[in-house]
Amino acid sequence: MCKILILYYSTHGHTEILANAIADGGRSVIEVDIDIKRVPELMPDDVAISVGAKLDQVAPIARVSDLADYDAIIVGTPTRYGRMSSQMANFFDQTAGLWAGDKLVGKVGSVFVSTASQHGGQETTIISTMISLMHLGMTIVGLPYAEKRLLQMDEISGGTPYGASTVTDGDGSRQPSEIELGIARSQGRHVALTTLALLRGRAGIAATST
Ligand SMILES: Cc1cc2nc3c(=O)[nH]c(=O)nc-3n(C[C@H](O)[C@H](O)[C@H](O)COP(=O)(O)O)c2cc1C
User: What is the best residue among 9, 168, 169, 175 to mutate for testing ligand 1's pocket, by most ligand atoms within 8 Å of CB?
Assistant: First the structure.
């Protein structure tokens, strides 16, 4: 059995929807167990209410120590000026103990994102988040163009070879499209298959090495 954590932050719910689609894709692979967890909110309640934050998110709050329990971690964040949200950065800023103990080395890492505008920093947010995962020793997995919806030009859409994404519009009124959700499911499936292959390969190496 391989264990995958989808770890996300979402103010308005778009990243949450992508997280659920990624989980659906991962669960299409047998022998995969998927948990979805959120990082803690940092905004005071009155501020969260005043910005219209989605307060009914059901995913449990992650503890930093949870990360060591998984074979793969798929990180989702809305962009903030082209980089990850402070809520997600705050969470990763507490992983020094895991880093010092090599606890995340060799685990699979992957990233997805939400932005308001089409060119508002999807790639920069995903790739700069990957840098943190690489410092922790994780093996980065993207989203291959074998997912042909990445190439479609018929409608405005998120979706990058680095990870799934959605575009929300400035007022957050746009919801993840069927194309974006399909791409997100592909990422979940691709990460699950890659993680299983890595685990089996390592088990084979351990069994044959002296
Ligand atoms: C402080 C701040 C900075 C933001 N910076 C960007 C940005 O650089 N580019 C962009 O397209 N959207 C930006 N946004 C919009 C958010 O990315 C958008 O609200 C988010 O993707 C919605 O996802 P959610 O529903 O999961 O919260 C910003 C929002 C805030 C509050």
Answer: 168
